[in-house]
Amino acid sequence: MNFLCSWSGGKDSCFAFYKATLQGFKPTVLLNVMNEFGDRSRSHGIPKAVLQAQANALELPIHFFSSTWGDYEKKYIENLKTITKNYPITHSVFGDIDIESHRAWEEKVSKAADLEAVLPLWQGDRKQLVLDMIDAGIEAIIVSCNQELGADFLGRIIDAELVKTLENMEIDACGENGEFHTLVVNAPFFKNRIEVEIEGKATSSNYNFANLVLKG
Questions:
Q1: CATH architecture of 2-118
Q2: pLDDT in tens, 4-62
Q3: 126-214, CATH topology level
Q4: Closest CA to 176 of 48, 25, 15
Q5: CB count, 10 Å around CB of 190?
Q6: Where are the domains positioned within the chain?
Q7: Which residues of 4-19 are buried (b: 16+ CB within 10 A; e: fewer)?
Q8: Would you say the C-alpha torsion 15, 95, 181, 43 has a positive or negative sign?
Q9: CA pseudo-torsion sign 203, 205, 207, 211
């Protein structure tokens, strides 16, 4: 029942991690895919140092590898196989909610490494999952978002008030369709808070990114 968590650094992977532990699974190692330069995460644009700080707060090792989107699947499977040789894991935990193609991919790559995929958030109501996450004491901030939201939303804490704002804008409260991505800065199961600052904002491919700097 030892698991690897596909760790984006954001709210969904963190909440899936938490719910997996409630189901009796034991966290063993985190996995994050970096961009081809190895300095930021492939999906959320989070600096490596910040992700390492999260792993330290969880008191778990984190495995990084760099990839382009083109060789993502091949490298993902290769690295899963490497991790299974170094850690006694049987399951892989993912934070997807209801996109079937994502689940199919996660089951495919997990099976290739003789792991069983677990999706603790699967088929949950998107809004309710966010509210449950907030109630569980997980604190996350928006670190990237599309132009419909705009750069002013970078750094906003995911709370009940923001959920209402997103609803009024007809934007999914979970950001499951890529409207925004988050960074978890604190949780009851972190040994310490992750202190970050936003030093400027950038725009790339119609998407806004916060330039995050780890404090301390």
A1: 3-Layer(aba) Sandwich (3.40)
A2: 999 999 999 999 999 999 999 999 999 999 999 998 898 888 999 999 999 999 999 99
A3: putative n-type atp pyrophosphatase, domain 2 (3.90.1490)
A4: 15
A5: 20
A6: 2-118, 126-214
A7: bbbbbbbbbbbbbbbb
A8: positive
A9: negative
